[in-house]
Amino acid sequence: xxxxxxxxxxxxxxxxxxxxxxxxxxxxxxxxxxxxxxxxxxxxxxxxxxxxxxxxxxxxxxxxxxxxxxxxxxxxxxxxxxxxxxxxxxxxxxxxxxxxxxxxxxxxxxxxxxxxxxxxxxxxxxxxxxxxxxxxxxxxxxxxxxxxxxxxxxxxxxxxxxxxxxxxxxxxxxxxxxxxxxxxxxxxxxxxxxxxxxxxxxxxxxxxxxxxxxxxxxxxxxxxxxxxxxxxxxxxxxxxxxxxxxxxxxxxxxxxxxxxxxxxxxxxxxxxxxxxxxxxxxxxxxxxxxxxxxxxxxxxxxxxxxxxxxxxxxxxxxxxxxxxxxxxxxxxxxxxxxxxxxxxxxxxxxxxxxxxxxxxxxxxxxxxxxxxxxxxxxxxxxxxxxxxxxxxxxxxxxxxxxxxxxxxxxxxxxxxxxxxxxxxxxxxxxxxxxxxxxxxxxxxxxxxxxxxxxxxxxxxxxxxxxxxxxxxxxxxxxxxxxxxxxxxxxxxxxxxxxxxxxxxxxxxxxxxxxxxxxxxxxxxxxxxxxxxxxxxxxxxxxxxxxxxxxxxxxxxxxxxxxxxxxxxxxxxxxxxxxxxxxxxxxxxxxxxxxxxxxxxxxxxxxxxxxxxxxxxxxxxxxxxxxxxxxxxxxxxxxxxxxxxxxxxxxxxxxxxxxxxxxxxxxxxxxxxxxxxxxxxxxxxxxxxxxxxxxxxxxxxxxxxxxxxxxxxxxxxxxxxxxxxxxxxxxxxxxxxxxxxxxxxxxxxxxxxxxxxxxxxxxxxxxxx
Length: 768
Known about the structure:
By secondary structure, this protein is α+β, with helices and mostly antiparallel strands. The chain has four domains: 11-69; 86-112 and 449-570, no CATH class; 188-405; 633-767, Jelly Rolls (Sandwich), CATH 2.60.120. The chain is built from 23 helices and twelve strands. Residues 246-322, 372-432 form a coiled coil.
């Protein structure tokens, strides 16, 4: 396009080729020399004329620019022929408007959704928000969790009760402890009584013996009478006196053995505490036993030769009745000297024996007194230890009870605080919650409003149609304008390439349509205002279409609203109603019930003992059990079929009892019984048959005891006593033996039998 150049005083600055620019006139008018002799009116008229020409030239240039941008008639008619008429366009636009008016706009949908969302939010704002509910649920215990915690507490309390009951069942009660104390006191009294009995027995034995003065006076009084009758009565008197003394000595030996066994058992009960005293006392007891057996043998051998005063008097009275003393006096004078000598010898022997026995009994009494003192000291120590244990037990129980009560009080206070917090939170939540009826009403309103709206499918179809039509119309308009503008650009470029003159311009203008024709044509077409209106309407329609939601947006929005409503409904369904919470709270225990249960638990726990006391009593009970178990190591076996192995060995068929099978090893029909651990054992065996058998006890193949089939001929290879008894009704008592033997490790015990084969027997071992 040609640009309009501004005027300047220099002529060279003007474009000469421009025919419409009055540059020469302007230069002349600006000059003053040329206008000196010319009137001013002429100059002014010329200046006015140049201004009008200039303005006309500017107007002509504007017209040229407008005309250059316009189309020719042919092009204009051809383009108008391709376009829609005003009627068609107005009909299509009315149809689109009608279709858009029937549909709900995006703003209405969004406003409705927002109103519903606002209503829901308003309803939800009156409720407790999710975060607060979650925080409350996290910070406080819900109803179910509270119930589970209470159930857990009750289960734990039941577990504690069961453990305490189990511990109480295992623990010895106060009665058991009192019984143990009573048993220990009884054992102590029995020990003291046995010691006193032993002392009394020794005193009786010493008192039963003849004193020296009594014996000499009796001999002096009866010396003359014994001379005549001594030879005839001596044999009978000796036999009777020896039998009585032997019986008395037997009874004394049995009592001594029983007392010895009782002492040995009591010493074993205190073996753990007084091992050193036990060793010393065992040595002393063994030495005393040997001394006692030696003294017994000496007394039985020496005293058997002597006669008792009473027996001698009886014998003398009988002989006085049978024979005359005068006639027999001469007969016995011969033997007087012999009797005096023998009696003197025997008196001296008896004196020495009595001195030995007195010395032995005094030593034994001293040892028993020392042992009794040691036992008294140990008993005092045990009583002192028991008192200390009782005091410690009381202090520990008080401390544990006080600590436990403090802990329970703390737990009770914590439970009260937590329960109060939970109740407050439940009340707040119940106050903030909506009722079920309100929620149903809100959901019904929402559903009604949603049902009153248009369907999504219809709305999508109408939107798609309108969008397609508008897109097609705008696409055609856009293409037409593109073509039109390209043509205009080409024409303008061609016109500016060729500078036309005024004549050419006039010719061109003559070729152009007249104003009347243009006005006629324009009158048939749309006015500018109508076009502006149409453009505004089109823009409004486009803005409405753009403001409308697309299908995807609407679907996503509807889906999100549905999801939100479902979540809200789920949240509301998961919430508990006031009635349910009230019923649950009514079903649960109150604070008073919990406090009363805790008080009862405190009371029950106050009556129980602590773990330390339980451990102490368990240790004591284990010590007692170990002592009792050590005393109950017993094994017993039976022989019934009467058959012998190798012609002499007894096969033991049946095992009646075996409390320590690791120590007493037995096999069926085996002749040997293996005793693993060494030590002192009590052995008992018996055989029951019509005729008296001969029995031998073998240890590792060596005979330690033999019994021939005569009760008066028994060979003891160790201390013991063989009892034999029979009855007219049959074999009742049998031939039995009770003895105490010290066995080496892994000793093999067997019995050799010789006698009637229709016999039965047993063997019993007990470790001491």
